[in-house]
Design goal:
Shape: elongated
Largest sheet: none
Number of strands: 0
Order of helices and strands: HHHHHH
Distance between the termini: 41 Å
Radius of gyration: 21 Å
Oligomer: single chain
Number of helices: 6
């Protein structure tokens, strides 16, 4: 079940990233053409592009956890034995889950409060609550991804940097 959920989230994240990137690219291109070609501009273009980039950032955070692409300090991992290394990865994932839970809780709270107040975006006059929704959704995706990390680390413990270097040295010989 967890594998199917993981594949579904992978697919949704890829589609969302392509959609948001396409929206930002196409609208930016139209804005440049309108501004320099027709000496006019679209009043709502900048807002849409900014919101698309923000959404890409939140989707990208989840993708970063999935692919291990977030910035990290690997000094302890490099010198720790595999048993300690495993627990360091699990501790990191648990801290990530705590952060993601707060992100989800506060993000959905911001969404509901903004929806109640009826705030609208300046140019498009769109409900601002929908701009804040990706914060809470990103928290949920991050929780799932960090749980996946814990599962993977538990099933196959990470190796220390010294073991990786020794394995690479053997492959070269």
């Amino acid at each position: 079940m967890f594998e199917a959920l993981n594949k579904l989230i992978d697919r949704l994240e890829k589609v969302a990233m392509v959609a948001f990137m396409s929206i930002a690219t196409i609208i930016t291109t139209f804005q440049v053409v309108y501004r320099y070609g027709f000496n006019n501009s679209l009043s709502w273009a900048e807002e849409v592009v900014i919101y698309s980039i923000v959404c890409m950032s939140f989707v990208g955070a989840s993708m970063g956890v999935r692919h291990g692409a977030h910035i990290s300090v690997d000094v302890l991992n490099a010198f720790a034995p595999p048993a300690v290394n495993r627990w360091l990865h699990i501790l990191t994932a648990v801290l990530g889950i705590i952060f993601a839970m707060m992100l989800a809780y506060l993000g959905f709270q911001l969404f509901s409060l903004t929806l109640e107040r009826g705030m609208l975006s300046p140019a498009m006059r769109m409900p601002m609550a929908w701009v804040y929704l990706p914060i809470g959704l990103s928290g949920v995706l991050l929780i799932i991804r960090y749980c996946w990390v814990i599962r993977e680390v538990w099933r196959k413990p990470p190796v220390s940097m010294a073991e990786e270097l020794a394995a690479e040295k053997e492959n070269l010989v």
